[in-house]
């Protein structure tokens, strides 16, 4: 990657090894269930997360939506965080696709309060109220925070008490596991279904996986077809996915680079870094400088070969990944210091 791209960890290109594996991948027709590379990826993903089966899907949004659709019935209510990806960044898909109502609770720190979740579960048989059908959790969270194992266990206990399934949006599941110093299966065990991305921080060009029981995945496979997600010789993508799973072992490097980046940014007068939120590969910060215009900074850095997103209500986010080395961070810092001097 020639440009230094800090917009997200979705911008990564396939590694040279990935491209070689993709070119040589044995393929079949995945809708018929005879693509050997897809089957290998799904088996590996299920084993890795301690589940019975897995399903390859085109994207993280697709993984979440097919999971909600499979778990719920029309008119039910699902409980989830007010800042989670399903609420904030999936274009209202659960209403459009699953026809479910959403009920949100605070989650700005990346965790749902088990007591609050239990409070709002619909316990009445009154025909006037919706039926709670699902609890959704997200880790690592869009805010960069990571739910503790204790929090996930407490939510599991609440769900079991009321016989409710849990879906885990684990788009950056392996980042969360790396931060906690555990394996992905240590997080996945608290959920009935888990979706995770191969294209966020793991360099795969396309794809996510959903894991769960064999019965759940069989139903989800039918729903994938309903939603138009059945693919043919998708083993070319699965080959990249298999290598992406190997790259989960280097995510700590991205986390360390993010902390380094945050420490350096904090040295610039007028920049306030949310250091408490640097848990994975994201650095959040605000700028308090006279006459500062966020779009001006975006254009300035773009002219220097550095891509960033504009601010969201004053909050900026830089994301480290495979192609953001210490040397590149230092180059970004050099340009930022020049801009703010």
UniProtKB/TrEMBL annotation:
Keywords: Lyase, Pyridoxal phosphate. Residues 5-285 form the Aromatic amino acid beta-eliminating lyase/threonine aldolase domain. It is an enzyme of class 4 (lyase). GO terms for molecular function: L-allo-threonine aldolase activity. GO terms for biological process: glycine biosynthetic process; L-threonine catabolic process. Its EC number is 4.1.2.48. The modification N6-(pyridoxal phosphate)lysine is found at residue 200. Its cofactor is pyridoxal 5'-phosphate. InterPro entries: ArAA_b-elim_lyase/Thr_aldolase, Low_specificity_L-TA-like, PyrdxlP-dep_Trfase, PyrdxlP-dep_Trfase_major, PyrdxlP-dep_Trfase_small. One of its GO terms (cellular component) is cytosol. Pfam families: Beta_elim_lyase. NCBIfam families: GntG_guanitoxin, PRK10534.1. PANTHER family: L-THREONINE ALDOLASE, L-THREONINE ALDOLASE-RELATED. Belongs to the threonine aldolase family. This is Low-specificity L-threonine aldolase. It comes from Proteiniclasticum sediminis. The gene is ltaE.
């Amino acid at each position: 990657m020639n440009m230094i791209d800090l917009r997200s960890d979705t911008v990564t290109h396939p590694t040279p090894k990935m491209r070689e594996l993709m070119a040589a991948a044995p393929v079949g027709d995945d809708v018929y269930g005879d693509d050997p590379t897809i089957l290998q990826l799904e088996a590996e993903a299920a084993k890795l997360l301690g589940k019975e089966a897995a399903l390859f899907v085109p994207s993280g949004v697709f993984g979440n939506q097919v999971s909600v659709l499979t778990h719920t019935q029309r008119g039910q209510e699902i409980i989830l965080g007010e800042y989670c990806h399903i609420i904030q960044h999936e274009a209202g898909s659960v209403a459009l696709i699953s026809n479910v109502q959403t009920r949100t609770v605070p989650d700005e720190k990346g965790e749902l309060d088990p007591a609050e979740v239990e409070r709002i579960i619909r316990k009445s048989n009154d025909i006037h109220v919706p039926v709670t059908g699902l609890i959704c959790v997200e880790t690592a969270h869009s805010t960069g925070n990571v739910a503790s194992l204790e929090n996930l266990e407490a939510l599991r206990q609440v769900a079991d008490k009321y016989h409710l399934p849990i879906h885990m949006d684990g788009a950056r599941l392996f980042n969360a596991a790396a931060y906690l110093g555990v394996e992905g299966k240590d997080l996945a065990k608290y959920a009935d279904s888990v979706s995770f991305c191969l294209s966020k921080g793991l360099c795969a060009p396309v794809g996510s996986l959903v894991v769960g029981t064999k019965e759940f995945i069989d139903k989800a496979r039918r729903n994938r077809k309903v939603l138009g997600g059945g693919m043919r010789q998708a083993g070319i993508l699965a080959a990249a996915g298999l290598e992406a799973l190997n790259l989960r072992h280097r995510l700590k490097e991205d986390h360390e680079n993010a902390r380094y980046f945050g420490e350096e940014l904090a040295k610039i007068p007028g920049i306030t870094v949310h250091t408490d939120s640097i848990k994975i590969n994201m650095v959040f910060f605000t700028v308090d400088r006279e006459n500062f215009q966020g779009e001006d900074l975006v254009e300035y850095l773009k002219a220097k070969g550095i891509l960033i997103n504009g601010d969201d209500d004053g909050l900026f986010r830089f994301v480290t990944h495979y192609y953001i080395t210490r040397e590149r961070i230092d180059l970004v810092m050099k340009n930022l210091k020049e801009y703010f001097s």
